[in-house]
Design goal:
6-stranded mixed beta sheet, alpha+beta, 6 strands
Length: 97
């Protein structure tokens, strides 16, 4: 971290993402931004595929669901199923069929 309130986006890559009960959701492989604000974290194996091949699969956790960052772990207010649902909602209609 740069200071108490500032973090580089690159510092989020590779951090373990967990729900509030401690269950692992995967490692952050990509950070999505819009207008200089973090919008979502892409995580897990399918997230890596999304990053490398520009597919819209993988788990997506909205930044608004992040509760805190503790060392190498990001705690969020969602579980694995809702993270996956977030990724499905991001697919285009053509990709859903």
């Amino acid at each position: 971290m740069i200071d108490g309130d500032t973090m580089l986006l690159s510092e989020l890559i590779g951090k373990q993402l967990r729900d509030e009960d401690g269950r692992a959701l995967g490692r952050v492989v990509e950070v999505r931004t819009k207008d200089s604000r973090v919008e979502a974290l892409i995580c897990g194996r399918w997230g890596l595929l999304q990053r490398l091949a520009n597919f819209r699969t993988g788990s997506r956790v909205a930044w608004s669901q992040v509760r805190r960052i503790e060392g190498d772990t990001i705690i969020c207010a969602c579980d694995k199923q809702s993270a996956r649902r977030g990724s499905r909602a991001a697919r285009s209609p053509k990709q859903r069929s």
